What we know:
Blueprint: E1 8-12, H1 17-28, E2 32-37, H2 40-52, E3 58-61, H3 67-80, E4 86-89, H4 104-132, E5 135-140, H5 153-173, E6 178-185, H6 207-215, H7 228-235, E7 246-249
Parallel strand pairs: 1-2, 1-4, 2-3, 4-5, 5-6, 6-7
Amino acid sequence: NFSLEGKVALVTGAAYGIGLAIAQAYAEAGAKIVFNCSRQETVDRGLKAYKELGIDAKGYLCDVTDEEAVKAMVTDIEATVGTIDILVNNAGIIKRIPMEEMNVEDFRRVVDVDLIAPYICAKAVIPGMIKKGHGKIINICSMMSELGRETVSAYAAAKGGLKMLTRNICSEYGEHNIQCNGIGPGYIATDQTAPLREIQPDGSRHPFDQFIISKTPAARWGTPEDLMGPAVFLASDASNFVNGHVLYVDGGILA
Length: 255
Ligand code: NAD
């Protein structure tokens, strides 16, 4: 069944965009929502968004790359809300810089947020899941888990790694009834991709925007709402024998 009644879901970086839509879907399916962001103004933006949606969400100021802060957050969630049943590693960043112009600090930051932080968060919630006898970990991957493109070397390296972390958590913790799967969004219209949709000075569409629409069988950008159903499926008992996979939600672009 697809119900998340009574479950506790931590969705990282879920103040807006994909994370907010996933958290909204979980709340509608009955889950209690907790989210975190690395800046107070983003936490406040998230709290306002949840209030407008009529969702009673708890927001934490916590940078997912800071292991001590993540541990403290998880301990507090367990004490005040309950043991986490569902973790969605959604917080992510992208830096679009040609590889030879990128510096090591920029590359490292992307790997830190997009690959090492999901490991830190999974590590923090797994003991509670083992005790509870079940758990769902959902890693927000990308089409770049499968392919490379110009200017996204660090992102592709991190998201490719995240796909393999997903498989590894499945192998290592499947016996504890923990399912770890990924969602690979296609091109989704959010703040992260807004620069790719900017209207050009001559009034034409951004070349990348034209490219996406021409290459996607669905002939449109995805929306955060497109991720809601797949995210509920992978968090619910309906997917209890689905483990270690990435579900691409891309309008067919990878086909
Ligand atoms: P977004 O930039 O709109 O939102 C990202 C969120 O992560 C923000 O709330 C931000 O505050 C949070 N965040 C960033 N760094 C953080 C940190 N260190 N600690 C805590 N929170 C942090 O992005 P989005 O488009 O909604 O993307 C969400 C996820 O989906 C990301 O992992 C992204 O890589 C992935 N994704 C997006 C697309 C797309 O087309 N938009 C495609 C594939 C994958």
